[in-house]
Design goal:
Helix content: over 70%
Distance between the termini: 40 Å
Number of strands: 0
Number of domains: 2
Radius of gyration: 20 Å
Structural class: mainly alpha
Largest sheet: none
Number of helices: 8
C-alpha cells in the first residue's frame, strides 16, 4: 500500500509539474499495459487451472519436500523448457511457496527459467551459432544451480 500511495503522490507531483508530459507518459503506459494484459490474463488463468488440478501433495512430493535433489532437477528442467514472463513466474513461486515448495527449488526454477531457453534454442542457434547457444545455455544452467544451492544454504534447507 505504501508503494501505491507513493506512486499516486509522485504522479500528482509530475502532473502538476508538466501536465503534457505526464499525460503523454500515462497514454504510453496504458498502451503498453493494454498490449500485455491479454497475455497476462491468459497465463494467469492457465497457471491457476494447473495449480487447481494438481493436488498439493503431488506438488510437495515432486518439488522437494521428500527429495530436494529430485525437486531441483524437475524444477530446473521445467524452468529450462518453459517460456513464461517474470510477472507470471514470481507470483507463481509465491503460490508454490505457500504449498510448501522449498526456496532452493523455487530459486532453481526461476533462475533456469530466466537464463536457460531450450524452446528458444533454435532462434539462438540461428543468430549465434549452435556452439555459442549451447555454451550460453550450459553456463546459465550452472549459474542456476549455484544460485539454487546458495539459496538453500542461506535458508538452511541444505548443509555443507
Amino acid at each position: 500500500m505504501i508503494f501505491y500511495g507513493a506512486t499516486a503522490i509522485l504522479l500528482l507531483i509530475s502532473f502538476y509539474a508538466d501536465r503534457k508530459k505526464t499525460t503523454k507518459a500515462l497514454k504510453i503506459a496504458w498502451k503498453k499495459f493494454s498490449g500485455i494484459a491479454p497475455m497476462f490474463i491468459v497465463m494467469l488463468v492457465l497457471v491457476s487451472i494447473s495449480l487447481y488440478l494438481l493436488p498439493n501433495e503431488l506438488i510437495r512430493k515432486y518439488l522437494g519436500e521428500e527429495d530436494l535433489v529430485k525437486g531441483m532437477g524437475i524444477a530446473m528442467l521445467v524452468g529450462s523448457i518453459a517460456l513464461m514472463p517474470g510477472f507470471i513466474v514470481f507470483p507463481l513461486c509465491g503460490i508454490l511457496r505457500e504449498q510448501g515448495v522449498p526456496y532452493m527449488v523455487l530459486s532453481g526454477f526461476t533462475t533456469s527459467l530466466m537464463m536457460v531457453g531450450l524452446i528458444t534454442l533454435p532462434v539462438e542457434k540461428e543468430y549465434f551459432g549452435l556452439k555459442t547457444a549451447l555454451i550460453r545455455n550450459g553456463i546459465g544452467l550452472v549459474i542456476a544451480l549455484i544460485v539454487a544451492l546458495t539459496t538453500g544454504l542461506i535458508f538452511a534447507e541444505v548443509a555443507i
